[in-house]
């Protein structure tokens, strides 16, 4: 994933924003703080990148905007899985 070559600060910013957007989409924002949003966004980026690679999408050439949307996609999937496990 191209995001792996991004700096740590870019991962934190993109992960935090993506985790926050995903938590808004899934309605879990009240349960999550800043740190959890960042962690969900980063883990979601890894998950989203892995899933898109399975479908043959060139994630490495996408840039930061594509990385953001990849993180949001993965974060929404991750939060859905976590919510299913919790309930």
Description:
Keywords: Cell membrane, Membrane, Transmembrane, Transmembrane helix. Its main location: membrane. InterPro entries: Transgly_assoc. This protein has a domain of 56 residues. The radius of gyration is 12 Å and the shape is globular. It has 87 residues and is an all-alpha fold. The protein is 74% helix and 0% strand. The mean pLDDT is 85. The chain has 3 helices and no strands.
Q: In sequence order, what are the helices and strands, one letter per element? A: HHH
Radius of gyration: 12 Å
The 3D shape can be described as globular
> Helical segment tally?
3
Number of beta strands = 0
Between the first and last Cα atoms, what is the distance in angstroms? 32 Å
* Uncertain stretches of 5 or more adjacent residues: none
Helix content: over 70%
Let me know the largest β-sheet: none
Structural class, from helix and strand content?
Answer: mainly alpha
Overall average pLDDT: 85
Strand content: under 5%
Oligomer category? single chain
Question: What is the compact description of this entry?
Answer:
By secondary structure, this protein is mostly helical. The chain has helices at residues 8-26, 34-54, 63-86.
What keywords describe this structure?
87 residues; mainly alpha; 74% helix; single chain
């Amino acid at each position: 994933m191209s995001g792996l070559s991004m700096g740590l600060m870019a991962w934190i910013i993109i992960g935090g924003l993506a985790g926050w957007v995903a938590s808004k989409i899934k309605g879990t924002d009240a349960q999550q703080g800043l740190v959890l949003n960042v962690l969900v966004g980063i883990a979601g980026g890894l998950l989203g990148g892995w899933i898109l690679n399975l479908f043959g999408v060139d994630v490495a050439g996408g840039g930061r905007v594509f990385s953001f949307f990849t993180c949001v996609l993965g974060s929404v999937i991750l939060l859905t899985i976590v919510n299913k496990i919790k309930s």
